[in-house]
Amino acid sequence: MRLSADVAxxxxxxxxxxxxxxxxxxxxxxxxxxxxxxxxxRGRAAAEETGSTFCKVDVTxxxxxxxxxxxxRGANGQERILVCCAGIGSAMKTASRSKDTGEIKxxxxxxxxxxxxxxxxxxxxxxAKSAAGMxxxxxxxxxxxxxxxxxxxxxxxxxxxxxxxxxxxxxxxxMTLPIARDLSGxxxxxxxxxxxxxxxxxxxxxxxxxxxxLAASVPFPKRLGNPDEYASLAVEMIRNTxxxxxxxxxxxxxxxxxx
Length: 259
Prior knowledge:
Oligomer: single chain
Largest sheet: 7 strands, parallel
Shape: globular
Order of helices and strands: EHEHEHEEEHEHEHHHE
């Protein structure tokens, strides 16, 4: 997919972190970008900074997603590029005992459901609706569009307390190839990135000793990933027309341990 001023893109979770870095790189190529995000303040600031369009969107709501795509397409035209970065984390053992009281508790099922709703269903909701829109377009060369989804190394290296998060991200990995096959006859490609430990807003809020320990656990380079490195891979997946149906780790060769 060519990157130019006559091409439109949507980036979910585009107000910060991996999404914002991707917005910036796409804008650097002249692409018209619409940012989907729940955080209105950050979203509007990011749109102003990058010359993008902001659409307040909750990916768990079909009505919100529909309204977001309508607004984005009204401003920029039908998107040929979709990058899905919207997501949340959750951490708690499936069942455990309190060290202080011995009380037994289990993972709150409403939190498990929310994690799946945002990370898996929210991603698929945006992919399906974007793909339907792309089908209305004439191809550019051989393709109508290109998409990138975001999973995590937790999809395959889930640690203690990550059952919900790993399930949601494992689902994203698992649907990559079937979606690519579904859309292959229409000239639409899709790939997935599995980031390791990155400098996202959530991670940057951790104590320095925690960040240092995490950085030391990466084989090479011994540091947290930079969001620009995620964006660079996302852009390559979009540009390279033979890149399709693949999931790729971006993690400095880390393999997550038990905890």
